[in-house]
Design goal:
Keywords: Glutamine amidotransferase, Lyase, Stress response, Transferase
Largest sheet: 7 strands, mixed
Number of strands: 9
Helix content: 25-40%
Oligomer: single chain
Organism: Hymenobacter metallicola
Protein name: Type 1 glutamine amidotransferase domain-containing protein
Distance between the termini: 12 Å
Family: Belongs to the peptidase C56 family. HSP31-like subfamily.
Number of domains: 1
CATH architecture: 3-Layer(aba) Sandwich
CATH superfamily: Class I glutamine amidotransferase (GATase) domain
GO molecular function, one term: transferase activity
Length: about 230
């Protein structure tokens, strides 16, 4: 069971002068779900090396069992610090892909041609594609084998407009995940803000927010076991 995790390399929060990147919980929780299930993991990012961590996700209030475990796990820290370059990755080598969120992916992975092609190839091969929180933004330009946008007509979830409003970044992000998924023809649905909410349609798994990252990882394992 070879699972690829793709993280952002983007660290600037628009023109605010603040830092962004990936969200720690959304990496750590799935990482341990997969690891504990015996999966072989590869971590990739557009630039390779250490992906930028959203400093807010390192805040004491944002810590969970998984992030605490990560902070005492030198091996996992080393794996994260040495991500391979995304353009060196071949879809054929993996059984599934998981995209953790954070605001970073809205700037780089959503527009990254290698990422778009990777998702298209994996999906066309019937392999699970999962993305949580802001990471469903990476599906923005991804097409299905029929040439239409992948999310069109599919049940999808992702960071809500009200959650974006709550973190006061509505006017900073390049696009709103909820709006993009809806405008792309996705059958967008959501749960209560900040509560776990995951939608699976076929081999596409999307989760709403940080709390959805662990259940989304379990959904991906379920698909792989089928």
């Amino acid at each position: 069971m070879n699972i690829l995790m793709v993280l952002t390399s983007h660290d600037q929060l628009g023109n605010t002068g603040h830092k962004t990147g990936f969200w720690l919980e959304e990496f750590a929780a799935p990482y341990y779900v997969f690891k504990d299930a015996g999966a072989t993991l590869t971590l990739a990012s557009p630039a390779g090396g250490q992906p930028p961590l959203d400093p807010k996700s390192d805040d004491p209030s944002a810590q969970t069992e998984a992030t605490k475990r990560f902070k005492t796990d030198p091996e996992a820290q080393q794996v994260l610090a040495t991500t391979v370059k995304l353009d060196s990755v071949s879809a054929a080598d993996y059984d599934a892909v998981f995209y953790p969120g954070g605001h970073g992916p809205l700037w780089d992975l959503a527009e990254d041609k290698k990422s778009i092609a990777l998702i298209e190839t994996l999906y066309a091969a019937g392999k699970p594609v999962a993305a949580v929180c802001h990471a469903p933004g990476v599906l923005r330009h991804v097409k299905a084998p029929n040439g239409e946008l992948l999310v069109k007509g599919k049940q999808v979830a992702g960071f809500t407009n009200t959650e974006e409003e709550a973190v006061q970044l509505t006017d900073v992000v390049p696009f709103l995940v909820e709006d993009m998924l809806t405008q792309s023809g996705g059958n967008y649905s959501k749960g209560a803000d900040w509560q776990p909410y995951v939608v699976t349609e076929g081999n596409l798994i999307t989760g709403q927010n940080p709390a959805s990252s662990e259940p989304a990882a379990h959904e991906l394992l379920k698909l792989l076991k089928k």
